Each structure stands twice: as C-alpha cells, then as structure tokens.
Amino acid sequence: MTSAQRVFVLTGAGVSAESGLGTFQDRGGIWSRFDPMALATPEAFARDPALVHEFYNLRRSGVVAATPNAAHEALARLESRLQERGATLFLCTQNVDDLHERAGSRAVTHMHGEILKARCLACEAVTPWRDDLSVATPCPACGRASGMRPDIVWFGEMPKHLEAIDAALREADLFVAIGTSGAVYPAAGYVAQARALGIRTCELNLEPSDNAAHFDEARYGPASVVVPEFIA
Ligand code: BV8
C-alpha cells in the first residue's frame, strides 16, 4: 500500500454492511427478498412507479439513519494521506448511499447513482431528493410536473462516469476492491482489466468473491477491521 502513487478503490455494498445497510447478493441480501427485475429496472418503474418509489423510500430512510463505519473513515484518511504526499485516490463506488461522503471522502464517483438525489423524467436534471418529489411536483430545473425518479442506475441502464473510471483505471498502480461480490458488470470486470494492464490488485472482503482468482493479494474479514489495517 505504502508506495502506491495512483490508487483505484472500488467499493460495494459490503463496505456499508456494518453500518446496517443491506447487501444484495449475500444470503438474506436485498435481492434475496426483492426481485431486482421487478424493482431495479426502467421497465419496473414504467410499470409501477409508486412501487419502485416505495422501495427506494424505504431504503433511503435506512441510509439517512445509518452512520459511516471504520472502513469509510479509513478510506477518507487514505485520500488525505495520499494527497499529502502528492499521490491520488480514485474512489469508485457501486453504492448509492452517502456514507463515504459523510465519513469525509471528498471525491467519490457513484457509478450506480445516488439514492439521495432525484432525476426529472422530463429534463433529466438531478436535484436533492425530497420525499414529496415522489409525487408529480414541478421540477426545480424545468418546472414541468412530469415526475421524478431516483437518480439510480438500474439494471440495463448505462452506469455513470464510465469515461472517468476507465481513465483512472488505466493510470492506476494499485487496484483495491472492497466489499463487492464481483457479480454486477461493468464493475465486476474492472479487476480483470487492471490485471491485464499489469496493475497490482488486492481484495478486501468478508469472504472470497466471484473474482477472487484475479487478485494478487487478499485479506478477508469485516471491512471495519481489514480496511483500517490495510491502509495503516
Ligand atoms: C449495463 C443500483 C450496459 C440499484 C445496481 C440483462 C439485461 C440487462 C443487463 C444485463 C443483463 N445481463 C447482464 C447484464 C449486465 C448487468 C449485470 O451485470 N447483471 C448481473 C446481475 C449479471 N449490468 C447492468 O445492467 C449495468 N448496466 O450493463 O449497461 C453497459 C455496460 C457497460 C458499458 C456500456 C453499457 C447496470 C448495473 C447497475 C445496476 N444497479 N445498483 C439499487 O441499488 O437498487 S447494482 C446493485 O447490485 C448494487 O449497486 C451493486 O452494484 C450490485 C451488488 O454488488 P455488490 O455491491 O458487490 O453487493 P453484493 O451484495 O453483491 O456483495 C457484497 C459483498 O460484500 C459480498 O462479497 C460479501 O461477502 C461482502 N460483505 C458482506 N458484509 C461485509 C462484506 N465485506 C466486508 N465487510 C463486511 N462486513
């Protein structure tokens, strides 16, 4: 860790698990209780927007009640420490919560969007979420009352910030995946891309992920333990 100059960190739901936010593919995870194709696709929203809003309002209340854990705090410290020595951290998260930011991370790339933001169905403008937005209130940007959706990337939709992610991945000298099962693409393909580029790879996870074979190094255990140890 110590000598890396351009660190790329990819986080997944496991980094927020100890903050009480559900993971997805785990036993008892969100997708074992809810059908993602019935709730996390544009077709699902077109079919039943009220149901999808209810699903995200429920999860959003969990995010607001949650607090960052030692893994989020360690990554915020890592960002500062790297910057102090002229190095960089590119923190890419699959998570839609704001726990990295609330722990102090200043640059977070949310490739799957953010549950605390809303997107106008008419003009695509993104604004902070308010619960009354789940009814057709006028968009603060365009004024049209076409309705709002959560600013989330659903299955089948293009993830956000792909160019910035690709550029950061190409110039990294260390790739670290934290709390992700390696089940959802394109994020799940990043470690193989890193390996092909000759970048050192490390997995910090509760247990070996679907991508475990691609990592040069791995430390298994709860993120609140293994992440602070790794960056120490
Ligand atoms: C795309 C927002 C094209 C929603 C999410 C058929 C139709 C359409 C698409 C596809 C298809 N078949 C395949 C695809 C591609 C699809 C995909 O990958 N599907 C999978 C199911 C095969 N991908 C997409 O649709 C993506 N878009 O492909 O567009 C494209 C792509 C590239 C370039 C151009 C065009 C969009 C995917 C985004 C979907 N949205 N989230 C919401 O949140 O409600 S995905 C959602 O599930 C999460 O965001 C997250 O990304 C994913 C789950 O992943 P993880 O974060 O890894 O979480 P998981 O529970 O799986 O794992 C947790 C890990 O933590 C575990 O390993 C566990 O052991 C560990 N852990 C648990 N506790 C701890 C811990 N670790 C440490 N400490 C602990 N305490």
TrEMBL record:
It is found in: Cytoplasm. Keywords: Cytoplasm, Hydrolase, Metal-binding, NAD, Transferase, Zinc. This is NAD-dependent protein deacylase. NAD-dependent lysine deacetylase and desuccinylase that specifically removes acetyl and succinyl groups on target proteins. Modulates the activities of several proteins which are inactive in their acylated form. One of its GO terms (molecular function) is histone deacetylase activity, NAD-dependent. CDD domains: SIRT5_Af1_CobB. Substrate binds at residues 56, 59. Residues 1-232 form the Deacetylase sirtuin-type domain. Transmembrane segments: none annotated. Its main location: cytoplasm. SUPFAM superfamilies: DHS-like NAD/FAD-binding domain. InterPro entries: DHS-like_NAD/FAD-binding_dom (IPR029035), NAD-dep_sirtuin_deacylases (IPR050134), Sirtuin (IPR003000), Sirtuin_cat_small_dom_sf (IPR026591), Sirtuin_class_III (IPR027546), Ssirtuin_cat_dom (IPR026590). NAD(+) binds at residues 12-31, 94-97, 179-181, 223. Binds 1 zinc ion per subunit. GO terms for cellular component: cytoplasm.
